[in-house]
Amino acid sequence: MSDSQTEEKPSPPPGRRLEFPILQVFPTIGGAFSASPVNATVIAVCVAIFLVLNLSGEPLQSTVLRMLAPSPFAIWTGSLWGLVTSAFVHLAWWHILFNMLCARDFGRLVEPDMGAARYGGFVLAAAVVASGWELLVSASTGIGYSGVVYALVGFMLARRGSRAAYQAILNRRTILWLLGWLVFCIVLTVANVAAIGNAAHIAGLAFGYLVGLVAAGGRRRPWALAGLACLVVGVGLACSYMPWSPAWTLRSGLRQFDEWRRLAEAGDPKAQGMYGSLLASMPNEREEGLQWLRRAAEAGDASGMNGLAWWLATAPEDSLRNGVEAVRWAEKAYKLRPVPEAADTLAAAYAEADRWDDAIARQESAVRDLPAERTESVALFRERLQRYRQHQKWREPR
Fold it and tell me: Of 49, 129, 131, 270, which shows the fewest CB atoms inside 10 Å?
């Protein structure tokens, strides 16, 4: 072998070494972005929003949340972008960690298979379907990317037979784990341990699977298209017609609701109490409603004190009740406005604090002072009195 063949090749000039410095310093990130740019961008956006929400204070945090995860009332009055943007919102570190790890592992396989443009459309459509069906079932879009994650799982399940990469990542153990987690989340929600967007998970899984069947072609394609049409109809209903939802029946008062929200955010205690009471009546918004009621109560609004005390005493969620605090606010509200409604709240608070003699005495006064023509309220007040005499606490329905 000649000397010329054994000589080392000259190194590239220094300028060429620094042509792509970011990719050299962060080869993994750069490689992920070049292989699946849409997926990498989605992860970056989710992380950026998470950092903004967790590192910023009021009022920026509330503004960002209101813009990206609008309430059902806002969606019903035109904020339809919330069906997409709410998927990119995370508040808890464990939530974003789980979703982003799954997005990384699943998305970097699916995106090259679909192509960047189609994958981007798939992600957006999956977000709309998942959020729309969560809205349809629970009157809330929920937050988080898990609906899209399950859509990726569904797509890979449908194409698993013809894709070795899908078979490798969706082995029997992983499939059982993902489906087990789906069932576990449903159990947590039913047991009232945590409010989880189960409808978003199931709708996302169904959407991804049906899209996979359509992409695969064959005799099942017409049925898959029909299934996708049903999912689309569900989203349409969620945005336009939900008579079974208590929140939907209040839509005629949306203008007043928005006015209360605007005044509440501007610092009006009375509006904070009204806005908080309405939110507290909706299970998925109850915790936020109590926060607004607390603001009104601390500002000296009697209605806010009474509303806060009522939910602290009667909320169906154990985590929201506090008998001692309920008594404190109910006594203040009754002192400011000694009306039958305030006495009714004070009695419920005494019952929650196991002060049964006080609860019975106060409820008896509420029944006595309530005008007889208010027949429905009289019957309800008497029912509570019977409960307290039997040492049973009052609970609002879930």
Answer: 270
Q: For 332-362, write each residue's pLDDT tens digit.
A: 999 999 999 999 999 999 999 999 999 999 9
| Residue 395, token pair as written in the block | 């609970």
Provide the whole-model pTM.
Answer: 0.61
Q: Residue 31: its pLDDT value, please?
A: 54
What is the DSSP secondary-structure string of 252-279? GGHHHHHHHHHHHHTT-HHHHHHHHHHH
pLDDT of residue 7: 43
Locate tokens 């002072």: which residue?
369
CA torsion 32-37-38-41 (nearest 10°) is 70
Supply the DSSP symbol for 9: P
Alpha carbon separation from 230 to 159, 170, 225, 340, 353 (Å, rounded): 21, 27, 9, 50, 49
pLDDT, greater one: 6 or 313: 313
CA 70, CA 63: separation in Å to the nearest integer? 10
**Relative orientation angle of helices 93-114 and 116-138, to the nearest 10 degrees:** 140
Taking the domains of the chain in order of start, what are their residue ranges?
Answer: 14-242, 250-389
CATH class assigned to 250-389: mainly alpha
**Confidence (pLDDT) at 254:** 67
Cα(33)–Cα(40) distance, rounded to whole angstroms? 5
For domain 14-242, give the fold. Rhomboid-like fold (1.20.1540)
Pairwise CA distance, residues 228 & 149, whole Å: 18
| pLDDT band per the 50, 70, 90 thresholds, residue 33 | low
